[in-house]
Amino acid sequence: METAPMVTALALFVGVVVLIHFKRSSLDYIPAMGPSRPIPSYRGALDYLRDAPRIIQAGYNQHKSIFRVPYLDKWVVVLCSPELINDLRKAREEDLSAARGFGATLAVNYTLGAGFVTNPYHNRVIQTSLTRSTSTRFTDIHDEISTAFQHEIKPSEDWVAVPALQTVLRIVSRTSNRLFVGIELCRNTDYRNLSIEFAEDVIKRARIINLFPDVLKPLVGPMLSPKPRAMARARRHLVPVIEERLRMDNEYGADWDGRPNDMISWLLEHATDDERTVDKLIERILMINFAAIHTTANSFTQALYHLAAAPDYVTPLREELEIAVREDGWSKAAMGKCIKLDSFLRESQRFNGVSAINMNRMVTNPAGFTFSDGTHLPQGSFMAAATYATHHDDAHYAHAEVFDGFRFARMRAGDGGEGGAESMKFGMVTPDPTFLSFGLGNHACPGRFFAVTTLKVMLAHTFMNYEIKLEQNSGVRPPSEWFGTTCGANRSAKVLFRRRA
């Protein structure tokens, strides 16, 4: 009987907090999508949760430079023009904080751990050691992809329907963790499922936690955190491995014979003393799995849908790869020569992406931040770039609403030729103010080189070993699925596989 008054009191409290916040942080000089007054803007925030892509696209079409959208407890400023996005790229972390912006989006204090923002040393590990591994451990990457495909999609002379996204998640998890924790654990079913499920839980729980005002998050966050359960499950697998690695390092130093060349070793090479504990290292492995698996799996699944819907791309992709493999074998060098393959994947990323907005930042300079056009944002403001709308702007890409798998191959050929330094301008790993999937500048995704190598080998393995088509053979790619600003590959679609004759 006492529940209703408590709920009413909580609702009133939340309403007052939101009202105060919106009055305090009003950005009246920036165009708003929807109502801008406190209570109506709260309704606008609910509309935004339901229909964010349409609202952002409408703001982009109307304003072209900058606008703002209502969240439940704040306004987020959306940048549209390449000039403003370039200002964001050049800004110092102490002025516009990527860590604080990304941390707020994912409620990291309760989902991944505060260290993801306060001490992101794993980014250095990813930028250096993991990137080098795309060459030094290419054979392992290729081997795990081949083995995982063999296990997940049995070669058959008959067409076999495969649930695409779920299957791809398992293959990506195995491939990533082959380099993260080794061959034994990467093939362990429970560990593989943990790495997939934790990332899903982080995203789901962050969305719920972010429905609450900041003042309530310390109460709600710990109750909704996915970390305790994930840590307990991960300990069963990782404690013996990490304890043995620490023991060997302490006894023989960091160069002992047979020391695995994996993420655990790389983390130990960069970790400060307070980070060299079993639980801290397990937490980092979970963080890195979160960053590595779902974005890569969704990107590959979207590309797979495009290839299955438009099989005319298969022959030129095969011919290009066959030439490269004859010259260099299955190697990083061979993948680098596959300009059409790179183009196909970049175009899929442009066309689909993973979010309507990207490059989240928070103004941390007490004096605020002023853009090159004079627009000023006070300290505490949040902003992001209009990624999806930028990628679908005819001013940047001719016929932007049409998927053109070799679009970037033609652009590269016309900008320095195959293999030329200038041709890399349109390579998948190269971001620019009109291709924002990996961010820009110093905060561009540090794992993009590993992710792109994985995507290339997976797609190459697919079209070299299988024939594929959509379940209904309709030639229409399964539609993407949106939740808020997040874009994901269709979760229910199946792709038919048959062993290549």
From TrEMBL:
PROSITE patterns xref list: CYTOCHROME_P450
Keyword rRNA-binding: no
InterPro entries assigned: Cyt_P450, Cyt_P450_CS, Cyt_P450_E_grp-IV, Cyt_P450_sf
GO molecular function, one term: monooxygenase activity
A Pfam family assignment: p450
Superkingdom of the organism of origin: Eukaryota
Binding positions for heme per the UniProt entry: C445
Keyword vocabulary terms for this entry: Heme, Iron, Metal-binding, Monooxygenase, Oxidoreductase
Cofactor: heme
Family as reported in the entry's similarity comment: Belongs to the cytochrome P450 family.
Protein name: Cytochrome P450
